[in-house]
Design a protein that fits this description.
Elements (H helix, E strand, L loop, with lengths): L16 E4 L2 E8 L4 E2 L16 E5 L4 E4 L8 E5 L2
Antiparallel strand pairs: 1-2, 1-6, 2-3, 2-4, 4-5
């Protein structure tokens, strides 16, 4: 599987701040790269399948994706 990327082609990394359909969010982890954002405990997410991107939205929701290929409304805002 290819490295996970935003629709723009930029690589996805843990800690990235993004806009997902206009809603602010942050990449919690990218299991394919074994990357976890600061403050995210790897052991708490050990159950997550490989090739998963964990996203925490500003309102506290957490969603998991295998890619953003079908999500044109995802935009990288800044790197941590």
């Amino acid at each position: 599987m290819k490295d996970p990327r935003y629709p723009s082609g930029q690589e996805i990394h843990a800690g990235d701040k993004l806009s997902f359909g206009g809603v602010p969010a942050r990449i919690m982890f990218v299991t394919q790269r074994n990357e976890y954002a600061e403050g995210v405990q790897r052991s708490e997410w050990a159950f997550v399948p490989a090739n998963t991107i964990g996203v925490r939205f500003e309102d506290g929701r957490i969603m998991m994706y295998d890619s953003f290929c079908d999500h044109d409304e995802v935009t990288l805002l800044s790197r941590s």
